[in-house]
Write a structure and sequence with these properties.
The strands form 2 sheets. A 6-stranded mixed sheet has the order 6-7-8-3-9-10, sandwiched between helices. A hairpin with a 2-residue loop joins strand 9 and strand 10. Helix 3 crosses helix 4 and helix 5 packs parallel to helix 6. The chain has one domain: Rossmann fold. The chain has 9 helices and 10 strands. The protein is about 40% helix and about 25% strand. Bound molecules: adenosine-5'-triphosphate and magnesium ion.
Length: about 260
């Protein structure tokens, strides 16, 4: 059988503060194939962001392995890790753009870090801005753009070094439903046209249903259910998935 592209094995993350000890990730195991769009769903505090931060080692796991393309990245030296991070793009709920830089310069930033020659970086950033539909906004500043446009810039920036993996932490939570739809379509295009494997955190089953092929449900630091998105949506087995789904149903019923 083909090995998974990403394999998370017995991953634990403990936080210590003021002599208190908190287990944010409890023996997490997950397999992700190349080209998958995996949704990680769970309530607030379930450990979703902690998990995604461990995946590019923004947070150091307490124990366990993260094997990507047959290599355990938790064993990488700092230099190897810096290089490896070019393979991973990340986008956030609050867009995290540099306010003092214009849009073009935001997209050029990761290319500067990778020491790409300036002219080449500019050309690449311009192409990416065109690809996300913002060619005419290159000289604007983040504050002059709508939320949806800022997230498009963040996606262009995340793609600058042609990553194989994209991590999205609540990428559409700050957007209205029509803008959410258009950003999810853009992320779908990243997955299909560029072949980028995606791990997407969301509170929302409706976001997962629009874009993910697989989902994993996280509850109090544990994976309590995984499966194809259609399977988990139609017959959730865990209490956590059932609670999230019924909450989504209540919101829809109340809205009608
Ligand atoms: N640096 C830290 N020190 C101590 N506890 C932390 C730290 N970071 C996160 N936690 C705790 O770990 C748990 C998981 O946090 P995390 O941010 O991963 O949740 P989440 O699922 O992303 O929640 P949300 O949906 O609200 O973003 C929470 O209880 C949080 O308080
Ligand atoms: Mg979070």
């Amino acid at each position: 059988m083909q090995k998974p592209f990403i394999s998370i094995e017995n991953l634990c993350k403990h936080y210590h503060s003021d002599e208190r000890h908190f287990c944010a990730l409890d023996n997490v195991n997950l397999s992700i194939n190349q080209g998958d769009v995996l949704g990680i769903i769970g309530q607030s505090g379930a450990g979703k962001s902690t998990l995604i931060h461990c995946l590019n080692l923004l947070e150091r796991p307490t124990s366990g392995k993260i094997i990507i393309d047959n290599e355990d990245i938790t064993q990488f030296s700092d230099a190897k890790l810096r290089n490896f991070r070019h393979n991973i793009g990340m986008i956030f709920q609050n867009f995290a753009l540099f306010q003092q830089r214009n849009i073009l310069s935001n997209v050029m930033f990761p290319l500067e870090l990778a020491k790409t020659p300036k002219e080449q970086a500019k050309k690449r950033a311009e192409e990416l801005l065109e690809w996300v539909g913002l060619k005419d906004k290159a000289m604007r500043y983040p504050s002059q753009l709508s939320g949806g446009q800022q997230q498009r810039v963040a996606i262009a920036r995340a793609l600058a070094n042609s990553p194989k993996i994209m991590l999205c932490d609540e990428a559409t939570s700050a957007l209205d439903s029509i803008t959410t739809y258009s950003i999810l379509n853009l992320l779908k295009k990243v997955n299909i046209e560029l072949g980028v494997t995606m791990i997407l955190i969301t509170h929302s089953f409706s976001v997962a249903a629009q874009i993910c092929n697989k989902v994993a449900v996280l509850d109090k630091g544990k994976i309590v259910e995984t499966g194809d998105v259609s399977e988990v949506l139609t017959s959730p087995k865990s209490n956590a998935a059932q609670t999230l789904l019924s909450a989504a149903g209540n919101i829809i019923t109340q809205a009608n």
